[in-house]
């Protein structure tokens, strides 16, 4: 089966990861790339400041960048769009595509917490995808909108889903986030070299709300947020890729570190092309200094989660987790949602 896809915002940090991940994808054929008016009409090679560690695929390099409108992609005849636009732009233009019947798998933060928009990680809550039926009824769209969570949220939530069986009640998390998470124009070198910035606008609220939606129950009509109390502190540090997070959790039960490690290690992945065979890799007590961004962000091609440092606390447990923010945390997350949309017959 072949599905023609397009990327909205294809020239940015996340857009470039889409290009990289779509190269040789068994199902998806890239047929359209869009960006801002400044880039439209140029070849992809001219428009993109290519920064990923593999060359631009030859066929993509010569593609013409289209304007980000339904008319811009009309000739490409795509079945599915991936969106990596700034959220302000996405909130303006995504509805135009949805009204025209496009299915959109989006990274942008607008509408992630909307009651009729599925916020999904295919390994965690694939059943939430059926919110699309509610969305179509309420909005009158022929298309469908699915969102993946923020990169810092997606780093932590798979580990929480794995240990929720012990009655997760409270989560405290402090992040050490890479500069690529802010996009190409996000943080200047003068701000971040030899520094750490203890504020990332809106990030803490995203972690606190999106986590509870992802872990919530879908009853066929609405998602009921998970009851755990989540509080986050988000920090930017001078790593390039890979968000590292320190998590403190409390439970109704009293799991040992070995119980928590075993639950994470045995967490099952669905049979989707881009989902790793083992989603969560867990380091034991013998390697207390792992995971680290430089050493562990490419686990499972950047699509895996790596955890370690699991230790008891007075009131529960603490551990560290890490994921590649522009792969698992962004483009790869959207791509995986695209694979789920195909699997479930929405594309
Ligand atoms: P970025 O590097 O700034 O790229 C933005 C993209 O959007 C570029 O292709 C840009 O095209 C295009 N664009 C900008 N303004 C536009 C407009 N008015 N009309 C049409 N296209 C426009 O940003 P990014 O880091 O890739 O992030 C993209 C989205 O993903 C954001 O919503 C971000 O919050 C989300 N996200 C990012 C990460 C991450 O780790 N970076 C993780 C999760 C989610 P030009 O090249 O022509 O300007």
Strand content: 15-25%
Helix content: 25-40%
Indicate the CATH architecture of the largest domain.
Answer: 2-Layer Sandwich
What is the average of the pLDDT values? Answer: 97
Radius of gyration (Å): 19 Å
Number of helices: 12
Topology order in helix (H) and strand (E) letters: EHEHHEHEHEHEHEHHEEEEHEHEEH
- C-alpha termini separation: 11 Å
Side-by-side strand order of the widest sheet: 3-2-1-4-5-6
Q: How many beta-strand segments? A: 14
CATH topology of the largest domain: Dihydrodipicolinate Reductase, domain 2
State the fourth-level CATH superfamily of the largest domain: Dihydrodipicolinate Reductase, domain 2
Largest sheet: 6 strands, parallel
Heteromolecules bound: NADP nicotinamide-adenine-dinucleotide phosphate
The low-confidence runs, each spanning 5 or more residues with pLDDT under 50, are: none
Q: What number of structural domains do the residues give?
A: 2
Global structural class:
alpha/beta
Shape: globular
Which class of the largest domain in CATH terms?
Alpha Beta
């Amino acid at each position: 089966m072949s599905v023609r896809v397009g990327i909205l915002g294809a020239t940015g940090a996340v857009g470039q990861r889409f290009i990289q991940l779509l190269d040789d994808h068994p199902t998806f054929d890239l047929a359209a790339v869009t960006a801002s008016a400044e880039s439209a009409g140029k070849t992809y090679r001219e428009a993109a400041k290519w920064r990923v560690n593999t060359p631009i695929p030859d066929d993509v390099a010569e593609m013409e960048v289209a304007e980000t409108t339904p008319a811009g992609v009309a000739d490409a005849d795509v079945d599915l769009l991936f969106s990596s636009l700034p959220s302000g732009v996405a909130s303006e233009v995504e509805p135009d595509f949805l009204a025209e019947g496009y299915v959109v798998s989006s990274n942008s933060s607008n509408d992630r917490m909307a009651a009729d928009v599925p916020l999904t990680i295919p390994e965690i809550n694939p059943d939430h995808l059926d919110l699309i039926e509610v969305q179509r009824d309420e909005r009158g769209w022929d298309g469908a909108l699915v969102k993946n969570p923020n990169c810092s949220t997606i780093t932590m939530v798979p580990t929480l889903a794995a240990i929720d069986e012990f009655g997760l009640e409270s989560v405290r998390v402090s992040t050490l986030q890479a500069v690529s998470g802010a996009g190409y124009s996000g943080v200047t070198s003068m701000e971040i070299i030899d520094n750490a910035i203890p504020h990332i606008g809106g990030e803490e609220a995203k972690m606190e709300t999106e986590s509870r939606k992802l872990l919530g129950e879908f009853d066929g009509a609405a998602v009921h947020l998970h009851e755990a109390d989540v509080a986050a502190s988000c920090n930017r540090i001078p790593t390039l890729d890979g968000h590292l997070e320190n998590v403190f959790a409390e439970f109704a039960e009293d799991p040992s570190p070995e119980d928590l490690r075993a639950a994470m290690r045995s967490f099952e992945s669905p049979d989707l092309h881009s989902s790793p065979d083992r989603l969560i890799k867990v380091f034991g007590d013998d390697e207390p200094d792992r995971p680290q961004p430089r050493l562990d962000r490419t686990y499972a091609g950047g699509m895996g989660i790596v955890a370690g440092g699991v230790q008891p606390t007075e009131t529960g447990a603490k551990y560290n987790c890490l994921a590649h923010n522009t792969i698992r945390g962004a483009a790869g997350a959207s791509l995986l949602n695209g694979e789920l949309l195909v699997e479930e017959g929405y594309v």
